[in-house]
C-alpha cells in the first residue's frame, strides 16, 4: 500500500542539477518502496513525470507556501534542489517538517542545495587566493556572515536541525558543468544547461570578444553534473541506511568539487571557440570595463554577478569523500572542453551566422 512506502518530497525535478539527482534516486535498489511527490511548475512535464516515471506530481511553484508546508509535512525525506535562496519557501518547508515532528515524533531528513558562492571572496579577478576551504572546517563555516551568498538560507536549514525537529544536510556544489544525459533529459523534462560558462559565452558573443575582470586570476572549483548527482545519491542512500554516522546541521555541509579552473582559462577557452565559429578574430580575453560589467552582468538575486564570477571559490570536498565514499571521475580539464558546445548553442540562440 502507498501508505507503507517511504514518503519523499522533491523540488527541482525539472532542473539541471535536480533532474540528474532524481534519475539516480529512481534507479535506487529500493526505489519500489519509495513514494516520491514532486512539485513542478510545468503541467506538461508533471504529466510526463507521472506517466513515464511514476512520480506523483503537484503543479505549483515555490511561491505556493501552503503547498510546500503540506507536502513537507507528509514526507520523511525532503530533497530540495529548486532554489538556494528562497527563504520564504525554505521557511514553509521547515514549518511542514516541524509540524510532522510535533504530530508524529518522526525526525524527518532534509537535503538542501546551496552553492559554493557561499565562500566567494572579493578578488574581482585580481589574484589567486591562497585559502582553500574544507567542508570539515566547521569553525570557518560558522564564521561566515549571514550576508554571504546563500548563507541566510543555509542558516535557516541549520537552525531546523539545532531545534531538533529535523536532520538537515546542505550540499554545496561548485561550478556544475557538463551535458547531463539519461531518461529525464531524453524525455525533455529536465534542463540541460548550467549557468557560469553559458552566461559568459552569451556576454562574449554579444560583445564580439572574450573578456576578463582583473586578469581572471581567480579560480572556481568545479564538478561534473553526473559526479555531483552521485554525491547527492550517496548522501540520500546513507540517510536511508544509517544516518546515525552522518554529519548534519552545522556539521552537515557537503561540498562537491573535483578540481578547479581559473576564470582566465575559462574565458580564453570561450574566446578560442568564438574565433573558431567566426564570431571573434582574437581569442585572447581583454579587460571588461566597469560600464560593460553593468551592461552585461547586472545582479543575480542580491549579488553582483561579475563579482561572483571573478571571485575565488577554492575548496576541497573532504566530508563528501570521507563520509560518503564519493569518488568523482570527471576532471577539471573537461571544463574547458565544454566551451565550443556552449558557444555553438549561444550563437544558434542568438541567430548569428558562423563559419561553415
TrEMBL record:
Query: One short Pfam family name for this protein?
Result: NAD_binding_10
Signal sequence, start to end: none
By its UniProt entry, which Gene3D superfamilies does this protein fall under? NAD(P)-binding Rossmann-like Domain
Q: Where are the transmembrane segments?
A: none
Where in this chain does the record put each NAD(P)-binding domain?
12-116
Q: Which GO terms describe its cellular component?
A: cytoplasm
Q: What GO annotations for molecular function exist for this entry? A: aldehyde dehydrogenase (NAD+) activity
InterPro entries, per database record: NAD(P)-bd_dom, NAD(P)-bd_dom_sf, NAD(P)-dependent_oxidoreduct
Q: What name does UniProt use for this protein?
A: NAD-P-binding protein
Q: Which organism is it from?
A: Lentinus brumalis
